[in-house]
Amino acid sequence: MSRHTYTASAISTVEQRPRPGKHWRKLVRRNPIGFFSVLFLSLLALMAVAAPLIAPYDPTQGSLLKRLLPPLSPGHILGTDALGRDMLSRLLYGARVSLLIALSTVLVSAVIGTVIGAFSGFRRGIIDRVLMRLIDVQLSFPFIVLALTVAAILGPSLRNIIITLVISSWVYYARLARAETLKLTQKQFVEAASASGAKAHWIFLRHLIPNLVPTTIVMASLEVGRIIVAEAGISFLGYGVQPPLAAWGNMISEGRHYIFSAWWLTVLPGAVISLAVLAANLSGDWVRDVLDPQK
User: Fold this and answer.
1) Domain locations in the chain?
2) Residue-wise burial string across 54-88, b where 16 or more C-beta atoms lie within 10 A, e elsewhere
3) Mean pLDDT of 127-133
4) Residue among 102, 200, 75 nearest 158 (CA)
5) What architecture is domain 30-291?
6) pLDDT band at 160, cuts 50/70/90?
7) What is the DSSP string of 18-47?
């Protein structure tokens, strides 16, 4: 083969390789709503982090002279509440609390549930049977009833609401991880590692846990919306985040007494919760497409 022929062949080979970012552009075209949902959640998280810089007022300070101002009032674009506190500022600070609780709960629940579920499916035997029966017992209780019971026992606080939601949520990750582990243990790479003399803990940490990460991430992304709603419901009932700390749930609770005279007190935080949950669910679908190797 001549030098020119080899060079032309090499150039042809390079040109046939997929361009960087082609896979991502394909996913964006296939599910643009999911992609923009991810952007919306990212923007919401960024605004929550930057709330002290962009919020026009202190969310806990109000003026009775400015109470119940409607949206588009001078100096208060989203109005004020019954104590004269700026609604925009409270929504921004409420995003910090609600997203912090949701992300913390999802992260801790995912780690605990995935490790326990994977260990149960890997060891099997009496350990697996005991753990699964305990999980079945917990799953027999409605989620919100269990969460309210734990919250009532621990008492209302930011830390306790996270603990409450973790206790109520880890079982879902455990069941999923166990099911995936049972399938993975039948794969050839696990059997080959075992046949080569690899120890059980090495197989568990090196081969099983890394292969559970994509599935866990997808479920975690879908769980964010559910946790936001759960936290809002618990705070609405008075067992979660306590005033004067702003959270979307207790903002709705405080505004329900004025629902006919000041609709924005409940509609605005309710709308933000709805948008955040919808975006979280759509983002979960997009994350699943991104992590699917067949896409």
Assistant:
1) 30-291
2) ebebebeebeeebebbeeeeeebebbbbbbbbbbb
3) 90
4) 102
5) Orthogonal Bundle (1.10)
6) confident
7) PPTTHHHHHHHHH-HHHHHHHHHHHHHHHH
Q: Please check the confidence at residue 151 and state whether its pLDDT lies above 80.
A: yes
Task: Give me the mean pLDDT over the 13-26 stretch.
Answer: 50
pLDDT, residue 5, reads 42
Task: Give the contacts of 192 (CB within 8 A, at least 6 positions apart).
Answer: none
Q: Does residue 108 contact residue 166 with C-beta atoms inside 8 Å? A: yes
Burial of 262 (C-beta count, 10 Å sphere; 0-12/13-18/19+): buried
Q: What is the pLDDT averaged over residues 39-66? A: 92
- Do 249 and 231 contact (CB within 8 A), yes or no? yes
Lowest average pLDDT, out of 67-71, 106-110, 204-208, goes to 204-208
Q: CB-based contacts of 198: which residues, under 8 Å, 6+ apart?
A: 206
Both tokens assigned to 107 = 């992260």
Instruction: Give the C-alpha separation, 89 to 246, whole Å.
Output: 9
